[in-house]
Structures are given as structure tokens and as C-alpha cells.
Amino acid sequence: MSTDGMPRPPFDAELRAGLAVVGGMFPPTITPELVDFMRVSYASPPMAEAFRERGVSVQDVVIPGYQGADLTAAVLRPMGGGGARPAVVYAHSGGLMFGDKFSGLDLVLDWVTELGATLITVDYRLAPEFPDPYPLEDMYAAVEWVAAHVEDLGIRRDRIMVAGASAGGGLAAGIALAARDRGGPRLCGQVLDYPMLDDRLVTASTNQFDGVGVWDRISNETGWHALLGDRRGGDSVSPYAAPARARHLGGLPPAFIDVGAAEIFRDEAIAYADRIWQAGGDAELHVWSGAFHACDIFAPHTSVGRSMIRTRNAWVEKILGD
Fold first, then answer.
1. Which residues contact 254 (CB under 8 A, 6 or more apart)?
2. Which DSSP string do the residues of 184-247 spell out, in sequence order?
3. What is the per-residue pLDDT for 215?
4. Can you tell me the distance from the alpha carbon of 145 to that of 73, in angstroms, rounded to the nearest whole number?
5. What is the pLDDT of residues 40-90, one digit of tens each?
6. How far apart are CA 173 and CA 161, in angstroms?
7. In what order do the strands lie in the sheet with 56-64?
8. What digits encode the pLDDT tens for the residues 90-99?
9. Which of 237, 109, 81 is nearest to 174 (CA)?
10. What pLDDT was estimated at residue 5?
């Protein structure tokens, strides 16, 4: 049951056992007062040794973001080998308020080491200091930069994909919409992991997970308010900031969308995939039974976490290899 007595799907037993550990770093309810704490607790650990062990080379770069501001980013490549590679521009998780370019990156390093992709991950600017449109426009500018430097980066122009988890998944969806509407870079795919798509907070799943799991109703309200302020839930919100508001979802690159059955983003992710299909588009949707939000980041060793990662990687391999 939720805190107001609303029934909800159960957590997978293996995942439920790990929630107490997760809660020490990522409390279920995040209020504005906790943002500074989250910026410390959710910061990525030192990654240099992990990159060496995985055979990943790292090039730190400074790229132009929204309105020309300098952004730090990293270009990750497999060590050795040559030739033009497919590329993934990655937007990190963190509710639009915390996290950094390496947050949750273990989730996608296989794309570099196993699939031979070049991964560009970006320190986009965070709300509330930098509200809408900064995060989305920073990420869109990064995609434009990659497309303009394919030869320098050794990237295939026809194989540029966007991806992100949670808030980053929402940003990836917004990038795909903006690229379509602005005649921007032609993307080969979009990976939307349990994406943050709708600022209106009206779905059943939003209200089922209140004070429990990872990223509950109050956390979601905190994140959207940081980004949009008093515009949240109103009529003036851009579909690039909240992609669920897009009127038409045709003409988008193929989408991989996955979400837990036991998390608040379940219903908006399902609805987004359904609207892509209604528009004649290509979407692969997975709803993972018993999965809480971002369980593949916090509990990748579990059966559900391993299945999520394996299934996602198979889709990415297909799209990047076409």
C-alpha cells in the first residue's frame, strides 16, 4: 500500500532486500532541503581506475553549451582499434538537480567495451540554479557539437544515438523532439531508461509510490519545480522540457523505453511508447515486474537488474550495428 492506502504492485523480493541499503545514499523522498546532500551523496566516485580496468580511454573536452557557455564533457572510447565508430551522447540521471557526467555510467560502459561505440557524456547545468531551458539546451548543444565534429572524433555521422536514465531519459527524449523539429542532427535511436517525461504528476503510478522506493511523488515534484518553478503543471511548459506534452510523436528515431512496474514513471513511459506507436513510429517497451526506479543502477547484480541491462544492450547493439 502507498502512504494514503492506495494499492501498488509489490517490489521484487530480491530487489526489496536491497532497498534499505539504497536508502542510505538515495532517500525515497527528496525535498529542496536535501538537494545539497544529494549533490554529495550521488556524486560519481573516482573513475580512472575503473576506466583502465575496462580498457576505456577518456578524453576530457570543453564544449559550447546553451548560449555558448563552456561545458565539461568526456569522450570515452575503447582502447586500440581505429575507423569510424557509432556514437552515443549520454545524459546522466539525478532528477535534473544533481549528478555529474559519470553518474550511473557503469550502466552503459558495455556500449564502449563490447560494442565499440564512442560515448560522449556531458556535465549539463543543473536546476534550480539553471532552470529550463538550460539542461535540455545544454544537451542539445552537445549533440550539435558532436555532429559538427564527426571527423575529428572518428564518429559515423549516420550512427549518432542519444541516451539517458531517469532525468537523463527525459532529456534524451527532449533532444530527439528538438532535433526533429529544428532539422537538427539525424539520430539513429534514443534510449529512454525509466524516463522523467511529465511535469503534471497526474498518473496513477505517481500516486502509488509515495514515501517508498527510489524517487517518489514528492521527489518528482521537487525536481520538476526546480526546473520549471511556478510554471510546473501549467499550460506554458515546453514539450522539450516535458516530452509527454508533445502533441505529435511521429518522425522520431527508434526508441527503447524501459521502466519498472513498481515506480512512479511507469504510466508515463507506457503512454509515451503507445503514442509513438499511434504515430506510426518504432518503440520497444519493457516494463519490468517488481522493479523499483533505477534498480539496474542501484542493484545491477540482481536477476531483474541483469535482465534489464542485457535486454537494453541487445537493442543498442542492433541499432548501432544496422
1. 188, 189, 190, 281, 282, 283, 284, 319
2. -PPPSEEEEES----TT--SHHHHH-SSSSSS-HHHHHHHHHHHHGGGTTSTT--TTTSGGG-S
3. 94
4. 11
5. 999 999 999 999 999 999 999 999 999 999 999 999 999 987 789 999 999
6. 11
7. 56-64, 70-78, 118-122, 85-91, 155-165, 189-193, 255-260, 283-288
8. 999 999 999 9
9. 237
10. 65
Domains and CATH numbers, the chain: 13-321 (3.40.50.1820)
**3-class secondary-structure state, position 292:** coil
| Strand-pair category, 189-193 with 56-64 | unpaired
Between the alpha carbon of residue 239 and those of residues 109, 178, 224, 236, 277, the distances in Å are: 30, 9, 13, 9, 18
Nearest Cα to Cα of residue 32 among 83, 96, 87, 93:
96
Sign of torsion over alpha carbons 197, 199, 307, 55: positive
Report field, pTM of the whole predicted structure over 0.90 = yes
In three-state form (DSSP H/G/I as H, E/B as E, the rest C), the secondary structure along 115-134 is: CCCEEEEECCCCCCCCCCCH
Q: Are 226 and 127 in contact (CB under 8 A)?
A: yes
In a 13 Å sphere around the CA of 18, the CA atoms on its Cβ side amount to 22
Query: If you count DSSP H runs as helices and E runs as strands, how many of each does the chain have, helices first?
Result: 12, 8
pLDDT of residue 110: 95
Asked if 162 and 175 count as a contact pair (C-beta separation under 8 A), the reply is yes
Q: Which helix (H) or strand (E) holds 72?
A: strand 70-78
